[in-house]
């Protein structure tokens, strides 16, 4: 039974990250006028059907529903994977589950409330922003906590080090992302704002993928 749960945990953790990466790639590939930029454009732009403009960025995403499906789905897949983690001697279990739940809720808010100019005007953009930052922070803290020795997750030292390192990178990029937005003049963010935002998101996805692919193999 423990081995089956460990295998399911690995599958869900990997699926959560892969759903995000794949839906992002498909949606970005469908955006051609002009081509979507992973470096400059916000991730949220992919979820806006458009046409719309916000923070000086033009948004028109033909497959916005694909990205929004990814936003809504990825966090819940990771949440299920976290719930299925080996429970034997897993301390701080409820903190880990709570962080995963916040990540899942954040993803839903991002997918349901879009980051468009119209959303900013009608007030629903606030829910989108709240969801994004809930996901950024809870996701990176989640995997940082899983990397702590006192959590006693049955993984090797290398996995703990990777999880903690990626957590620090994600949280630092989150701070840099907020700072960049606040300091941007005339609502025109710097040309690498999309890259900075991905620096906040990708580490937690990489952690989920790595933990599922390799980190839990020793207990499967």
Write a structural description.
- This protein has 220 residues and is mostly helical.
- The protein has one domain.
- Helix content is 67%, strand content 3%.
- The chain has seven helices and two strands; from the N terminus they run H-E-E-H-H-H-H-H-H.
- The protein has helices at residues 2-30, 64-83, 93-112, 117-122, 125-146, 157-183, 193-215, and strands at residues 52-54, 57-59.
- A hairpin with a 2-residue loop joins strand 1 and strand 2 (57-59).
- Helix 1 packs antiparallel against helix 2, helix 5 (125-146) packs antiparallel against helix 6 (157-183) and helix 6 packs antiparallel against helix 7 (193-215).
- The longest helix is centred in the first third of the chain and has 29 residues, at 2-30.
- The model has no long low-confidence stretch (mean pLDDT 90).
